[in-house]
Amino acid sequence: MDVFDGNKFLNTVLLLVTTIIVAKLISAFIIPKSKKRLPPIVKGWPIIGGLYRFLKGPIFMLRQEYPKLGGVFTLKIFHKNITFLIGPEVSAHFFKAPESDLSQQEVYQFNVPTFGPGVVFDVDYSVRQEQFRFFTEALRVNKLKSYVNQMVTEAEDYFSKWGSSGEVDLKYELEHLIILTASRCLLGREVRDKLFDDVSALFHDLDNGMLPISVLFPYLPIPAHKRRDEARKKLASIFASIISSRKSADNSEDDMLQCFIDSKYKDGRPTTEAEVTGLLIAALFAGQHTSSITSTWTGAYLMCNKQYLSAVVEEQKNLMEKHGDRVDHDVLAEMDVLYRCIKEALRLHPPLIMLLRSSHSDFSVTTREGKEYDIPKGHIVATSPAFANRLPHIFNDPDRYDPDRYAVGREEDKAAGAFSYISFGGGRHGCLGEPFAYLQIKAIWTHLLRNFELELLSPFPEIDWNAMVVGVKGKVMVRYKRRQLSVDQ
């Protein structure tokens, strides 16, 4: 390089540096600063931001950042901004905002390969609302009453195969019972009686295709996603055959499948086979994990808290004295003590640890400390039932299992307003299957409490944070002894 070239290079560098300095000066002094009061930002790596911490587990990140940053803060991942709203004081807008302001569709696109095209998050909001109406109609009280009879029958049949005494993995047993129950109530008699093993295996592949990485990369060509897609095709073929058979035989059953077949949109259009299949898959995913996980946690807590185990057994005796051996929708509805025990297990271990929305407009929130923040349009907005359900300013001694916190006079789940307890979400997107889940878990535990003495052999179970739907880690070994509960015991 000669002297002329060297000077030319140096001048170019100086010009570039000068341009950058001038640009920053203009930005600082001439262009007015944004008046938005943006939330604090979680520290992260260049470019990828907080990706590693998010994939490692959002709850661990929340535990570290909430004490430092408060209930509102932003996590950057690549070009995305995820703003967390933790606690009822700031999450009301999250639950109450219309879809035009905070949308589910964009953030739950990772469900589309599993549920299939043309349903739930693959359609615009107006169509999705009509499809949710189909769910609502399939879960009306008159339908739930018939489902309860099927739940009770399935529980009686399943536990009849247990001996007079023995040891079992309660987690395994409840998972299998609940998929049997869900198959009968939701997927139909044809699946329950003839195709259960095939459909169960296919749902297993679908389930294993729902990985944490699927949230960010739902179409990544990894083996789990390939098995998911193949299982989805086979399920579609099975349900197309069942739907066609029912229609040609003019056969009507008392299950959710039939409700979806009979459903019509407001313009009179009937549901298609593909839509029915997608809605059924969505229903099973929404209900199966929640019920099996919560049933297992409920049992583990009852066996480790004898005062509450005694209380639910005493409640069963009182109901038996009043109703005899009858177990139906109305009898289950009277089980307030068991309800509170299930609700407390669900507070401590909600299967869905994060709820997400996409912000289509700016909005503001005020924390319980009085700090005001402006959340910009374009942010992903998140809240966490798993974290919010253990906030000490709402729940007294929040890590302790205490079903009496919901009793009349305490009602801690309402202490800070409508969104103090959010295991089933809330507001306009609250879980439609909540009544179904409680009835199913009550039916199962009613049978167990009335027919067995149970003792937990394993250490109290740990949480499986690696699963998409957070559940119980490892086996939950239980010793059982058959007995017949009576009002005189």
Question: Care to describe what's here?
Answer:
This protein is an alpha+beta fold. The protein folds into 2 domains: 1-33; 34-482, Cytochrome p450, CATH 1.10.630.10. It is 52% helix and 11% strand. The strands form 4 sheets. A 5-stranded mixed beta sheet has the order 1-2-8-5-3. Strand 10 and strand 11 (471-473) form a beta hairpin. Helix 7 runs parallel beside helix 17. The radius of gyration is 26 Å and the shape is globular. Mean pLDDT is 90; it is low at 1-6. Its EC number is 1.14.14.154. Keywords: Heme, Iron, Lipid biosynthesis, Lipid metabolism, Membrane, Metal-binding, Methyltransferase, Monooxygenase, Oxidoreductase, Steroid biosynthesis, Steroid metabolism, Sterol biosynthesis, Sterol metabolism, Transferase, Transmembrane, Transmembrane helix. One of its GO terms (cellular component) is membrane.
Helix and strand arrangement:
Layout: H1 3-30, H2 51-56, H3 58-69, E1 72-77, E2 80-85, H4 88-96, E3 102-103, H5 112-115, H6 125-138, H7 141-159, E4 165-169, H8 170-187, H9 189-208, H10 223-248, H11 256-262, H12 273-304, H13 306-323, H14 329-333, H15 336-348, E5 355-359, E6 363-366, E7 372-375, E8 380-383, H16 385-388, H17 434-451, E9 452-456, E10 462-464, E11 471-473, E12 477-482
Parallel strand pairs: 2-8
Antiparallel strand pairs: 1-2, 3-5, 4-12, 5-8, 6-7, 9-12, 10-11
Helix pairs in contact: 7-8, 7-17, 8-9, 8-12, 9-10, 10-12, 11-12, 12-15, 12-17, 13-15
Main location: membrane
InterPro entries: CYP450_sterol_14alpha_dmase (IPR050529), Cyt_P450 (IPR001128), Cyt_P450_CS (IPR017972), Cyt_P450_E_grp-IV (IPR002403), Cyt_P450_sf (IPR036396)
Protein name: sterol 14alpha-demethylase
